[in-house]
Each structure stands twice: as structure tokens, then as C-alpha cells.
């Protein structure tokens, strides 16, 4: 675990708690994503490093750029980040916040790598099977990799389910050589 993650976690949790109390987790997700994108932009990133620019000035700049996309509570949140000199953590805060939101909403992000593109029917069947297995709603991301020859590899919740033909052939080859 990186130091950035350790530093960002309490800020992500605080943001989630505030958003959840206001029943505005989606809105906060959008505001954090926008703030993260803004501070990641090269010019703004340089301003964050400048000792000549105060935290309150950065809050004003971000709020000015975002306009009504940032509500008053979120601007207060940014002020806390400014007071603690933690703007550079916003991308990690946004990422951790999204994970907290997905956990609370019982969502699971799943990546499926297959040799050929899955059609809508296959994706729906796979989502249903994974939803039953993990007891969560599935957010499916598909990727094509012809090197796996056939089948699919599923990455879900820290688990890897390798049903690829490449893996089966490798196991068969290993068993024949041993």
C-alpha cells in the first residue's frame, strides 16, 4: 500500500460519509472526479506546487472553473484539503471514494478478457452468473485478447478465474512433461 493511499483514505472516507448523510453519493462522485481532473491538469498541478499560491486561492480557482458543479459543502471540503495541503491527493481520494461507493451500493467491477468480443447475450449471461456467485450487481468491462486462444479470464474482487484455452493447454503441457 502506498503512502498516498494511506494519506488519502481518511479524506475519501470523510467525503463518503458527508455524501451518504446528504444522500448525494453520485453527486459527490462527480464533484471528486471533476476536482481530480482539474488538479491533474498540468497548469493547475504546477500552481499546487507554487509557494506563492495559497490554498484558499486554489479553492477559489477550482470553484471558479467548476462553477455550479461544486456545491457549498464540497467547497468546504476543498478548504479542508487546502488547510492540510492535500490537493495532490485528489486523484487517489476520488478513486478510494468510488470504491467505497461501489461497496455501499453492492457493486462489483469485473474485467473479462476473452479471445473474441462477447455479444450482448453472452455478456448478460456472464453478468447474471457473476451476480449470483458474488451476490452483487456487476459492472462489466470487456476486453479482447486473441493470445488467450479461446475461453475467458475473469478478474473480479481480487480473484482471477482463468477459463482460457491458453491456461488449459499450459496445464496439460505441464502435466505431460512432469
Explain this structure.
This protein has 178 residues and is α+β, with helices and mostly antiparallel strands. The protein has helices at residues 3-21, 25-40, 42-49, 55-66, 72-83, 90-104, 120-134, 165-177, and strands spanning 107-114, 137-144, 152-156, 159-162. A four-stranded mixed beta sheet has the order 2-1-3-4. Strand 1, helix 7 (120-134) and strand 2 (137-144) form a beta-alpha-beta unit. Helix 1 runs antiparallel to helix 2 and helix 1 crosses helix 6 (90-104). The mean pLDDT is 93.
Q: What gap, in angstroms, lies between the N and C termini? A: 38 Å
CATH topology of the largest domain: Peroxidase, domain 1
Helix content: 55-70%
Could you say how many structural domains there are in total?
Answer: 2
Top-tier CATH class of the largest domain: Mainly Alpha
Put the structure in a nutshell.
The chain has helices spanning 3-21, 25-40, 42-49, 55-66, 72-83, 90-104, 120-134, 165-177; strands at 107-114, 137-144, 152-156, 159-162. It has 178 residues and is α+β, with helices and mostly antiparallel strands.
Amino acid at each position: 500500500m502506498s503512502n498516498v493511499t494511506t494519506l488519502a483514505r481518511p479524506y475519501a472516507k470523510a467525503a463518503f460519509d458527508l455524501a451518504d448523510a446528504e444522500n448525494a453519493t453520485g453527486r459527490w462522485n462527480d464533484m471528486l472526479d471533476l476536482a481530480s481532473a482539474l488538479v491533474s491538469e498540468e497548469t493547475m498541478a504546477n500552481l499546487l506546487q507554487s509557494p506563492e499560491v495559497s490554498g484558499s486561492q486554489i479553492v477559489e480557482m477550482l470553484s471558479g472553473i467548476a462553477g455550479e458543479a461544486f456545491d457549498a459543502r464540497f467547497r468546504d471540503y476543498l478548504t479542508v484539503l487546502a488547510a492540510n495541503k492535500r490537493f495532490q491527493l485528489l486523484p487517489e481520494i476520488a478513486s478510494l471514494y468510488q470504491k467505497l461507493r461501489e461497496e455501499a451500493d453492492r457493486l462489483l467491477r469485473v474485467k473479462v478478457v476473452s479471445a473474441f468480443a462477447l455479444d450482448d447475450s453472452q455478456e448478460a449471461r456472464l453478468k447474471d452468473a457473476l451476480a449470483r456467485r458474488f451476490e452483487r450487481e456487476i459492472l462489466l468491462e470487456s476486453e479482447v485478447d486473441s493470445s488467450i486462444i479461446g475461453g475467458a479470464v475473469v478478474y473480479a474482487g481480487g480473484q482471477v478465474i482463468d477459463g482460457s484455452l491458453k491456461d488449459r493447454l499450459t496445464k496439460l503441457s505441464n502435466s505431460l512433461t512432469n
